[in-house]
Amino acid sequence: MFVLSLFPSVKPNTLRVSPQTPPSFVLEGSDITLPCKVTQELTHNTYLSITWLVKKGATPEEILTFGPQLDVVVGQKFAWRFANGGIRLVPVSYGLYELVISRVNSSDEGVYACNGSFPSSSNTNILTLRSMHRAFRVGRRNQTEDFHPGGQGLCPV
């Protein structure tokens, strides 16, 4: 089971990378979609680049970049998985891009960042994907509830 939390990081300019509502948890072996909304006060996004990165240790690794020429450049460590459909980028609508990770497993645990950039500015939205074994804890504002596999209850999202 995985828990996903959003921590937006916004710089004061017109480029915005906004958090979208991802699922709060997903079962191991399922697919997870990490949405990223990128907007800029321009009439068109000719030079927009979207880069997804993951930090599993001290250094972030580039998963893929969707560039201004509408091409996708895949990071070396993710080339095999991308080629086999295990990781893909889905441009949903104007400014909304989704990173889809198929068949998530514990090796997918990490801090994911979506970076939107133009030649003159850059902005990042950060998502954390944690592997939770046996039981997991979900917190929301002033309430926290425990859930255990096989148990029943509602998950506050």
From TrEMBL:
Keyword hit for Signal: yes
Keywords: Disulfide bond, Immunoglobulin domain, Signal
Record protein name field: Ig-like domain-containing protein
The organism's place on the tree of life at top rank: Eukaryota
Gene3D superfamilies: Immunoglobulins (2.60.40.10)
Residue ranges of every copy of the Ig-like domain listed in the record: 12-128
SUPFAM superfamilies assigned to the protein according to its UniProt record, in alphabetical order: Immunoglobulin
Gene Ontology CC: membrane
Disulfide bond is among the record's keywords: yes
One Pfam match: V-set
